[in-house]
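Quarterly update from the structural biology core.
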Amino acid sequence: MDLYLWIKALHVVAVISWMAAMLYLPRLFVYHAAETPGSATSETFKVMERRLLKAIMTPAIIVAWVAGIFLIWKGGWISSGWLHAKLAAVVALSGAHGYLAARVRDFAADRNTKPQRFYRILNEVPTLLMLVIVVLVIVKPF
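Predicted structure, tokenized:
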């Protein structure tokens, strides 16, 4: 069996898991921002956000990066222009991951200062980056 294909499958599963969490976490923030700090609902959101980050989002980004680096190396893609653009978008998505993780810490400490609208808009950032990444990988425009 071809190891490259198995790692590619693992990469796709990790990316799907990562993106699911990246799209769901800001949605949780939308609802959490409407709650009174310290309320039972607010405390429930804290648990949900922490578990999503620690059990799904962070392991998925690690697997996506490790598998992706293997695919770049084994596939000989390093000199491809589309890959450089994709990596820039993936770095931006990773930055968004870090930003969301910081917001989880803020909500956990009852330090959120952002309104629901902010999180509704923030929820679109991973979507836009995902669209760019998918087009670059599938179309390979340059």
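The chain has a mean pLDDT of 97.
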